[in-house]
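1st attempt posting a full record on here, be nice pls
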Amino acid sequence: MSPNTQSPAPIDLTAGLPGPEAAEPGGESVVTIKDLSFYYGRFRAVKDVTLAFEARKITALIGPSGCGKSTLLRTLNRMNDLITGTRVEGRVEYHGVDLYGKGVDAVEVRRRIGMVFQKPNPFPKSIYDNVAFGPRINGYKGDMDELVESSLRRAALWDDVKDKLRQSGLALSGGQQQRLCIARAIATSPDVILMDEPCSALDPRSTLQIEELMFELKEQYTILIVTHNMQQAARASDYTVFMNMADDRAGHVVEEGKTLDIFTNPKNQLTEDYVSGRFG
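the predicted structure (as tokens):
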């Protein structure tokens, strides 16, 4: 989880980003954050964060509400750019390239680093068109039927919807809608998938299905998940980052490491208090 000391070869983000094969499990970090601070106007929401996320692993971000977990997650694919008055200090590197560097295409960044939100948000379109939307606007020239099917299969949804692809995605159950959103993210061939509390609106059975899906997806993708569910973090992640608020209300990292260590042998008393339910 510590930042990698070896710098990968330079990548021109304006000409397209590398695919998932660019980093192997146990090898280089896919995303590295260095001395990151994030501001909403004058308010510093996240301060002095340095982390690295390993290829094809699941990392959980945990901590009390308001400690900057979701803000940090959104800095990784520049979603916060869409909010007026925000700014970033420090570096967010993807395969060694600063995502906030001059000339970097934010749209391309979001294609390579996909996102699944807290509440399932299918487009008011057919199941097929939900999955095909991203590839279409990105100029995909291949077999769209094949891409839609493979994306739905990887999201463990194909068997449920293969006979109703022209029906509205809004007609699906909550768990199915969230898997549709995951299929939609997968369809643009990302390298990293960000998940912001993807199970908070789902029942226990649907939550388990999403967790099982995450285990399957990490064979091909690097996954970062924000969750308030300690059991989910313990079950589903390889690494865990615990964040908390400082006296100035800025979110910062208290402790990070392998999930087993964080939950069974934390180094910081504050971490132990949080994972054991004493506060938060």
